[in-house]
Amino acid sequence: MFTMHKILETYIPIAEVIAKTFGQDCEVVVHDLTVPQNSVVYTVNNHVTGRKVGQSFDHLITEVLLSQNFTNDFSANYYFQTEDGRMIKSSTLLIRDQEKKVMGALCINVDTTAITENINWLSKMIPANPNQFPKPVPKQENLSEMEHIREIADELIDKIIGDKPLEKLRRDEKVEMIRFMEEKGVFLIRGTIDKVAEKLNISKVTVYSYIEEIKGKSSSSEKVV
């Protein structure tokens, strides 16, 4: 059972009206980023990507925080593919609490399958003029913006590690936390290795060794048929 923060509850009507406006191909997801490993707290039309309450975020870092289009706490109109090959058009808005700290996110995911099928049908009726997605533009580093992103990343790291006494954390628990961060792209943000090492009271070398161990296990499992 997940208890939803009062601030996030105010986004439920917004999620519902967005989904009702754009129909069954539009999924809306509300995340509670104070619990990163189980951030999904509300979904509408979750058949689009299969998001379920209790799951964690997927694209927050790679497609939002590190996106060229991330500004004013949102990134609009980025794309990702589902496991079955459908193209999803997505937008994410960060949600802040009374102290202006990031505590949640509102994500809109639109299945473009029907739109693409109609475009393909229409394209047969006119001269061919293939229209490709624009190539991603490398994000230009801006010092104030990078500080803003690092602040959000630091808050995520704090929430992932939690407040359990470090002396009671087993090695496998630390490895699992680092595995989650690696999987979600946390370490793509500059300075996060240092932050995690400091928070877990271990060396940077140890963090790197854990990451290599995790990648090694992942590579081994991929080779199993």
From TrEMBL:
<dbReference type="InterPro" id="IPR013559">
    <property type="entry name" value="YheO"/>
</dbReference>
<feature type="domain" description="Transcriptional regulator DauR-like HTH">
    <location>
        <begin position="154"/>
        <end position="211"/>
    </location>
</feature>
<feature type="domain" description="YheO-like">
    <location>
        <begin position="8"/>
        <end position="116"/>
    </location>
</feature>
<dbReference type="InterPro" id="IPR039445">
    <property type="entry name" value="DauR-like_HTH"/>
</dbReference>
<dbReference type="Pfam" id="PF08348">
    <property type="entry name" value="PAS_6"/>
</dbReference>
<dbReference type="InterPro" id="IPR039446">
    <property type="entry name" value="DauR-like"/>
</dbReference>
<protein>
    <submittedName>
        <fullName>Helix-turn-helix transcriptional regulator</fullName>
    </submittedName>
</protein>
<dbReference type="Pfam" id="PF13309">
    <property type="entry name" value="HTH_22"/>
</dbReference>
